[in-house]
Write a structure and sequence with these properties.
222 residues; mainly alpha
Length: 222
């Protein structure tokens, strides 16, 4: 059966990933520093950079994230963030031209899962779930609501109080017309604890939550 493609292609992928938590275990300081720098540059490119300059900013960040993961091929955290950068760049680029970036992102995230499914509080599951939710299905792309739900729920099992897994599962439920369920997860996302070093990402994600929450409440009362 053909997957529905009535949603804008990869809208909010940029959100994909604003909020992945920094949970690196026993890593060298240089690794931690570069990971945090990529996360910070991601937040700047996604939330601060003017729209007309955003694609160029992500082109540069793709190169940096690829170098980081190639230097650390057995670190799931590096692969996760390369996947996040690629998926965000796909959202910024838009259209069918973004599908190649989305496929590259899926490859990196799958590789991260094979190394450590729990890395960054299960963020590979969150990111893959969002990809499967946003990408069009067959014959255009690889999108699948079944896989999206499976991965997003796995992310919640690993990180039940996290801002990202709750937000992205709420977004999925909203698109499935479960507005009451979406509101419950949005309210939980708002209560998520702040992430060390991720203030700009948290601020941006809270804006995403408030925007979707207003939409869901309006739909519940209409």
């Amino acid at each position: 059966m053909m997957q529905k493609t009535n949603r804008p292609f990869l809208i909010c992928l940029a959100t994909l990933l604003a909020g992945v938590s920094l949970a690196v275990h026993a890593a060298p300081a240089s690794f931690d520093a570069e990971l945090l720098a990529i996360q910070t540059d991601w937040a700047t490119a996604n939330y601060v950079t003017p729209e007309k300059e955003r694609e160029a900013a992500f082109d540069k960040l793709i190169v940096r994230a690829a170098a980081f993961s190639s230097q650390n091929p057995q670190r799931a955290e590096a692969l996760i963030w390369e996947g996040i950068v690629l998926s965000t760049a796909a959202g910024v680029k838009g259209g069918l031209g973004a599908l190649g970036l989305a496929k590259q992102s899926r490859t990196k995230l799958d590789a991260a899962l094979a190394i450590d499914a729990n890395a960054l509080d299960g963020s590979a599951y969150t990111s893959l779930g969002t990809l499967y939710h946003k990408v069009p299905g067959f014959p255009i792309g690889f999108g699948s609501n079944k896989k999206a739900k499976e991965y997003l729920r796995k992310a919640l099992q690993i990180n039940p109080d996290g801002i990202d897994p709750n937000y992205f599962y709420a977004e999925f439920l909203h698109d499935e017309d479960d507005h009451a369920g979406a509101l419950r997860y949005l309210e939980k996302a708002l209560k998520a604890p702040p992430r060390p070093g991720r203030a700009s990402a948290d601020k941006g994600r809270h804006q995403d939550i408030q925007k979707l929450m207003a939409k869901v409440r309006k739909e519940l009362t209409s």
